[in-house]
Automatic annotation (TrEMBL):
GO cellular component assignments: nucleus
UniProt key word Nucleotide-binding: no
PANTHER family referenced in this protein's UniProt entry, alphabetically: PROTEIN IWS1 HOMOLOG 1
Protein name: Transcription factor IIS
Main location (coarse class): nucleus
Compartment(s) of residence: Nucleus
One biological process term in Gene Ontology: brassinosteroid mediated signaling pathway
Length: 135
């Protein structure tokens, strides 16, 4: 789970860089690793067990000034989230507790987001609503 730690640290380092007025590049540098590891289906469930949804939420959250992080990050993570089988393994509580739905909802309504990403975010919100509402 060293990789998960790397993903978490990238977020923290980017926030520090932002506060110093420097370009935030750590998540972007780690993005190839994130997409590589999560493209392997057999790793996805292990990462979900260790808080992946919260980490991805942190990657997608707006910067302190309200602007969205790098567009490439949104695009890749939205595609990853669309491919991860969350509903199959009863991840309802993780989905609710992570808060990622709120960030995805924000992306689905943001004028800063490109149309294809807004549409994908909206599809995720609709799919996840069904999971969360199911008893």
């Amino acid at each position: 789970m060293n990789v998960m730690t790397e993903f978490k640290v990238a977020v923290e380092e980017d926030i520090d860089l932002y506060r110093q007025g420097k370009p935030v590049t750590n998540k972007l540098k780690k993005l190839p690793l994130l997409t590589d590891v999560l493209s392997k289906n057999h790793f996805q469930q292990q990462f979900l067990d260790h808080g992946l949804l919260t980490v991805l939420k942190n990657w997608l959250e707006p910067l302190p000034d309200g602007s969205l992080p790098n567009l490439t990050i949104h695009t890749k993570i939205l595609k990853i989230l669309n491919d991860i089988d969350i509903e199959h393994n009863d991840r309802k509580e993780q989905l609710k507790n992570s808060g990622i739905g709120n960030v995805i909802m924000l992306l689905s309504k943001s004028d800063e987001e490109i149309n294809i990403n807004r549409k994908l975010a909206e599809e995720l919100v609709n799919k996840w609503k069904k999971i969360v509402i199911m008893i």
